[in-house]
Design brief:
The chain is α/β, with parallel strands linked by helices. It has a single domain, classed as 3-Layer(aba) Sandwich (Rossmann fold). It is built from 12 helices and 5 strands. Helix 3 packs across helix 11 and helix 9 crosses helix 10.
């Protein structure tokens, strides 16, 4: 039995009226020019280090672990419980079985409502980079830059071996599992295909880019989409 979670997301958006407010046209010179960036990433593509370096360059907070922290706080559950279900798809049967076996379990309805609320709140605050969790499908497209970090499978396997210390078999197993979990998460909760290119402003193949070079490309796209942000930042710094 499949459950359509998307109505819960819409309900959260309506309750907080964040998406409506963020979608309104804003005068270019208005101080609300505090956009956000979402970063979707293939395992081994380099999305996390790129997001953190981008955050340093823009002076943006990277929202990754803090998303889990806030969902755990709002559901009054241990962080370990939320991490166990973070970015993973679930079925109705999964929810029933786990809720019976584990009294601390958070069902899909409650999880997606709280996750959507947390991500929309961060997006509304602006000046942040939201890593994963289908944030590009939750947040208003016009108010953020939505980036997808990818690389060919062989490249990602070699990176997992180099940077994580995995042997080839383990690297392939981890990449396959994590990629499947993230794709099923998006499909389950948002009824979307995470691989669709039109879900992003920019899809960046990092095969031939260093972290800093990838950040340069993203910053160029960011400034093209939000030119007023550059002028505002310069004025605040007295440049």
């Amino acid at each position: 039995m499949q459950i359509d979670y998307y109505p819960f997301i819409n309900r959260v958006m309506s309750t907080f009226r964040l998406k409506d407010r963020l979608s309104q046209p804003i005068p270019e010179g208005h101080f609300f020019e505090k956009p956000f960036i979402t970063v979707t990433r293939e395992p081994g593509g380099g999305g996390a280090p790129i997001a953190h370096r981008l955050g340093e360059r823009l002076n943006f907070r990277v929202r990754d672990e803090s998303i889990v922290d806030e969902v755990a706080k709002s559901t009054k559950k241990r962080k370990a419980i939320i991490k166990e279900i973070d970015e993973k798809g679930r079925t109705y049967v999964d929810d029933v079985i786990h809720s019976v076996l584990n009294p601390e379990y958070v069902d899909g309805n409650r999880y997606i409502k709280e996750l959507s609320r947390v991500i929309l709140t961060f997006a509304h605050q602006g000046n942040c980079i939201i890593l994963g969790r289908g944030a590009n499908f939750i947040t208003p497209f016009a108010r953020g830059l939505h980036v997808n970090i990818v690389a060919p499978y062989d490249v990602r396997v070699k990176r997992a071996m180099k940077y994580e210390g995995f042997n080839e078999e383990k690297a392939k197993e981890v990449i396959a599992r994590v990629q499947k979990e993230r794709e099923e998460f998006v499909k389950t909760y948002f009824k979307k295909d995470a691989k669709k290119s039109n879900a992003y402003d920019l899809t960046l193949n990092t095969t031939h880019y260093s972290i800093d070079e990838a950040v340069d490309v993203i910053m160029l796209a960011f400034r093209r989409k939000f030119p007023a942000f550059t002028r505002l930042k310069a004025s605040l710094l007295g440049k």
